[in-house]
Amino acid sequence: MDLDKRPLNDNTQQRRSSEHSLHPTNALPVETDPSASTTFLSYHDNDRIYSGYVPTTPLDELAWTANYRILRLLGKGAQGVVYLAHREGVDGYFTSVALKVFYRHPDRETSDYVREMKRIAGQAQRVSGVQHDNLISIRDFVTIDGVAIDGDRVMVLEWVDGLDLARLLDLQRLESLKQRLTPENWRHLNDVIVTAGEDHCRLKPGLAVDVLRGCLAGLSALHHNDIVHCDLKPSNIMIKRTGTKKIIDIDSSCILGAEKDGVRGTPYYMAPEQLKDRRVELGSDIASLGYVLIEMLTGRQLFRQCESREDLIAAKHELPGRLDHILPEEVRTAPLLYQLVHKMIAVDPSERFADADAADLDRVGAVSFHRQLVRDNLSTEYDRELAWWLEAMYDAPVGPSPQNP
Question: What is the distance between the alpha carbons of residues 158 and 140, in angstroms, rounded to a whole number?
Fold first, then answer.
């Protein structure tokens, strides 16, 4: 292995030179870059390693064939089908990726398909340059046959080892855990993490806001680049087995201020201005996350009775006035959390948080509620709690809860 690459002082240099002289058969000679102030020692066997070679003529490009072996279906969406696959290299190497295949419907005009794929490719290009731990990483955008302009497109994505929020909150999954957890762990799960709701699981306030803040962190990176996600919903929020949150699915995203030829996204979670005027602002994403937050806190589907676009618009205009009847008591009696919810779903965009940073860092933003929990000694290690919960969901042997090691 290589030693660390810190600059060496005289004493360290003398000591390491002595160590090197004691093991002449296991070390290469000291290599010094005359243009650098750092000396490196490489402890590889000279007879067993391949000596690298750098061609004198630099290469302009490299090309090779990428082979993907489909393992299983991960999910289906309005525009594509997602598979888990192995990208296979040489010498036995492979890595796991997610492949989103945009199959062209036989009844769809080729020109329309190509136009839409160019739009998605443009957004993928922009988002791929926004590197953030809470955003899905986009690796490539290709055609299946690699040549034909009308070939089915494939987006190569980071594989996120975890569950989306919709699946995580499934009531049947929670009920199945009861059969496997010890009584002590089951009590911890219900007291600290999650409990059953009317339509799906209900997260405890601290954990729900932690999920929200993970989303806001990734969303902030998009907003700083004038990108509006436009389709934030539970199935587009992944929770990794480490507890990390990731925003996925950028197909409906757009550049702030760009003409939007048709409403893309999921009407159920769209902001009122998106539904009514097809107008998109950074704050439109905040309203969508606000609806998700309320559903996490209540265990209810907010707009399940709506049957039309007009019903949805009316329900979203009425929602701020109904919060006292919807939110559980532990939310209604927490002023900072109540104000956070109320401001996220404000009907008038000017009264809503302007962007992700404001929703997190404002005086009544998400961070203020978490700080209040810390001051009151009510906070917990949310990533560890989520990781422990996901370990149980994956039918793995479940260890003691994080607070009961």
Answer: 10
Q: State the residue for tokens 């360290």.
A: 12
Residues 88, 281: Cα–Cα separation, whole Å: 41
| Residue numbers annotated as active site | 231
Question: Which CATH number do you get for residue 320?
Answer: 1.10.510.10
Q: Is the dihedral of CA 241, 247, 249, 250 positive or negative?
A: negative
Total domain count, the chain: 2
Domain that holds residue 203: 163-393
- Give tens-digit pLDDT for 87-127: 999 999 999 999 999 998 888 888 899 999 999 999 999 99
CA 90 vs CA 95, 96, 99, 145: distances in Å: 11, 15, 20, 21
CA distances from 324 to 333, 338, 351 (A): 10, 9, 19
| pLDDT tens-digit readout, 229-272 | 999 999 999 999 999 999 999 999 999 887 666 668 999 999 99
Amino acid making up residue 337: L
Q: To the nearest whole percent, how much of the chain has pLDDT over 90?
A: 68
pLDDT at 41: 58
> What is the C-alpha to C-alpha distance for residues 341 and 333, in angstroms, rounded to an integer?
13
Tokens, residue 53: 């070679």
* CA–CA gap between residue 119 and residue 123 (Å, rounded): 6
- 316 and 370 housed in the same domain: yes
Element (H, E) at 245: strand 245-247
* Alpha-carbon span 61 to 58, nearest angstrom: 9
Residues 146 and 234 grouped into a single domain? no
* Same-domain pairing of 293 and 169: yes
Q: For 300-320, what is each residue's pLDDT tens digit?
A: 999 999 999 999 999 999 999
* pLDDT value of position 395: 64
Name the more confident of 75 and 355.
355
Q: Looking at residue 127, which CATH number applies to its domain? A: 3.30.200.20
